[in-house]
Amino acid sequence: MSQQATQTVVAIGAGVPFRRAPRQDTTTEPRVVRWVLIGIALLFLGLFLVLPLVAVFYQALAKGVGTYLDALTDPDALSAIKLTLITAVIAVPLNVVFGLCASWAIAKFEFRGKSLLTTLIDLPFSVSPVISGLIYVLMFGAQGWFGPWLQDRNVQIIFAVPGIVLATVFVTFPFVARELIPLMQAQGADEEEAARVLGASGWQILRRVTLPNVKWGLLYGVILCNARAMGEFGAVSVVSGHIRGQTNTMPLHVEILYNEYNFVAAFAVASLLALLALVTLALKLIAQRRLTQTSSEPAAS
Question: On the chain, which terminus has fewer CB atoms closer than 10 Å, C or N?
C-alpha cells in the first residue's frame, strides 16, 4: 500500500473527515481532440435542440403577444390543455402505485415469474405507441372484443377520455418502476428486515423506511412519467378520434392547427408544451442531483 493510501486509511480510522482527491483526467487524448469532440457535441445540440426550440418561440410570437395569447385562450386550445392535464393527473398517480408495487416486489422478494414481470415492464418501450393505441381500439372499439357489450351499457371508451387515459397509462407505466427497481436493489433489504424484527407492520415499513429512501428516485420517475403523459401523440392519436374541443390533447391540437395552416396558433400551443418540457428538465436535473447525492452518502460515510 502506498504512503498516501496508508495515511488516508489512518485518517479515516481516526475519525478525520474524508476529503476526495482532486479530479484527474483519465484520458490520454490530446487537448485538441477533446475540444473537437466537445465542439461537435455542442454543434449537434445547437442544430437539433436549441435552434428548433428558439424557432418555436419565434414563430409563436411572430405576430405579437396579443395574437399569442388569443391562440392560447381559444376555447379549443383551452379544452386541449384541460384534457392534457386531466390525463396526466389520472395517469401519473396510477403509474406511481404500479411502480411502487412492482419495484418493491422485484427488488425485495423472490417469486416465480419475477423475470417475466421485469420483461413485461419494458413492453411499452419495445412496442410502437401507434400499435398500443390500435390494441385498445381492437379491444374496446365498436367492432372490438368488448365493443358490443360496452355499447349495450352505453359505455364509451374509444374516442372518449377513458381511452385516452388508458393509452397514456400504457405508454408511461415503465418510467416510475424503471427508476425505482435498480435503486431498491442497490439499497438492499437490511433496513426493512430490521424494522420488521422491531415489530413494524408492512405499511409502517413502506411509509417510514422504504419511501424516505427512494423519495428522490420516485420524484425523478414521476417527472419523466408526467413529461411523457403530456407529450404523448401516437397512442392518443389512435384512440381519440380527433374530436375538436372534446378529445384533442395539446399535441393533437397542434397537429390540427398546423394542417389548417394556422401556424401562429400551432406554434403558440407548441411553445406551451416546450415550456412544460423546460420546467420538466429543470425539475429532472434537481431530482437527479439529489438522487446522486443520496446514493453517494453511504459510500462517503
Answer: C
